[in-house]
TrEMBL record:
GO MF term list: ATP binding; ATP hydrolysis activity; four-way junction DNA binding; four-way junction helicase activity
Chain intervals for the UniProt region annotation (Small ATPAse domain (RuvB-S)): 186-256
SMART domains: AAA
Region (Large ATPase domain (RuvB-L)): 5-185
CDD domains: AAA (cd00009)
Region Head domain (RuvB-H), residue ranges: 259-348
Catalytic activity annotation: ATP + H2O = ADP + phosphate + H(+)
This protein's name: Holliday junction branch migration complex subunit RuvB
Gene3D superfamilies according to UniProt: 1.10.8.60, P-loop containing nucleotide triphosphate hydrolases (3.40.50.300), Winged helix-like DNA-binding domain superfamily/Winged helix DNA-binding domain (1.10.10.10)
HAMAP family assigned to the protein according to its UniProt record, in alphabetical order: DNA_HJ_migration_RuvB
Gene Ontology BP annotations: DNA recombination; DNA repair
């Protein structure tokens, strides 16, 4: 099975995605598609900051990968006319790493900290003071002779992004002046994203072709753009370059992305749950062995979308398929009282 980074429907970005996103990324809030509530609220925050001739409040953006958190951070910097510094939580393993970044910031600069929930605890504690007082204490020396030297920082705006807001400690969350939660996109919004990207990529696409791609994009613009590029490749090689509904269907069949956006791994999990275990309940470890994957891969990569689509349910007794799962794979549920699927039959 492919890893999360290799999946066509993965929310995470690979190297190709990052390069293409740079070209497709909106430059201001008016151009940004979707997230109406967050855009409206953020627009007020930025306009108020500009009226005060000050820096914007610190911003926390949460939501699944691929929904536009990085793009919004760049828009914040552009709207404020400020430079932006980009780093990530995993890259900051020591307080000294953070101190080096903070001490080099210019006044008004935007610091974008992706995956902020993965920052080390010492760096996290240093960030509290930096966000609130624009000051850090740099420790010089070790042991009883160690000395804390206060270092004043110019006012800056921290934009933190996280896919797991619940892992952020309350003292850190409370220091953000604005918190925006990024929602999954509706198909109509994704169609607008696809049409805009097609124009920038110089791709001809019909409305029904865009609708077909949008319906398989799992509510995520990054996935929509990735599928658009793969369908474009198919259209250029197998057709005349024009993306119609039929071409999109044929292309995505080749790439094993079905009508609801499920890929090979998603369907393998559902098929094992339905065919081998009669729809469950079945323990996660048992299900992972059945599809030849690690437990964490099934739980973190496949399950979230299957649960969100109403195809799978997590229960105290194990994973259970819903009637929609049977219908999606064209299978008939077993009769009540049959051996497969009896509660408690398949352990964890």
């Amino acid at each position: 099975m492919p890893s999360e980074a290799e999946r066509l429907v993965a929310g995470a970005a690979d190297g190709e995605d990052q390069a293409v996103e740079a070209a497709l990324r909106p430059k201001d809030l008016d151009e940004f598609v979707g997230q109406e509530r967050v855009r409206e609220q953020l627009d007020l925050v930025l306009k108020a900051a500009r009226k005060r001739n000050g820096t914007a409040d610190h911003v926390l953006l949460s939501g699944a990968p691929g929904l536009g958190k990085t793009t919004l951070s760049m828009i914040i910097a552009a709207e404020m006319g400020a430079p932006i510094r980009i780093t990530s939580g995993p890259a900051i393993q020591h307080a000294g790493d953070l101190a080096a970044i903070l001490s080099s910031l210019a006044e008004g600069e935007v610091l974008f900290l992706d995956e902020i929930h993965r920052m080390s605890r010492p760096a996290e504690e240093m960030l509290y003071m930096a966000m609130e007082d624009f000051r850090v204490d740099v420790i010089v020396g070790k042991g009883p002779g160690a000395t804390a030297i206060p270092l004043e920082l110019p006012p800056f705006t921290l934009v933190g992004a996280t896919t797991r807001a619940g892992l952020l400690p309350p003292p850190l969350r409370d220091r953000f002046g604005f918190t925006g939660h990024m929602e999954f996109y509706a198909p109509a919004e994704l169609e607008r994203v696809i049409h805009r990207s097609a124009r920038l990529l110089d791709v001809e696409i019909e409305a029904d072709g865009a609708a077909e791609i949008a319906g398989r994009s799992r509510g995520t613009p990054r996935i929509a753009n990735r599928l658009l590029r793969r369908v474009r490749d198919y259209a250029q090689v197998k057709a005349d370059g024009l993306i119609t509904r039929g071409i999109a269907e044929q292309a995505l069949k080749v790439y094993e992305v079905d009508g609801r956006g499920l890929d090979r791994l998603d369907r393998a999990v559902l098929r094992a749950l339905l065919k081998l275990f009669g729809g469950g309940p079945v323990g996660l470890s048992t299900l992972a062995v059945a599809v030849g994957e690690e437990r964490e891969t099934v739980e973190e990569v496949a399950e979230p979308f299957l649960v969100r689509e109403g195809l799978l349910a997590r229960t105290p007794r194990g994973r259970v398929a819903t009637p929609a799962a049977w219908s999606h794979l064209g299978l008939v549920p077993p009769q009540q009282g049959g051996t497969p699927g009896q509660p408690g039959l398949f352990g964890s």
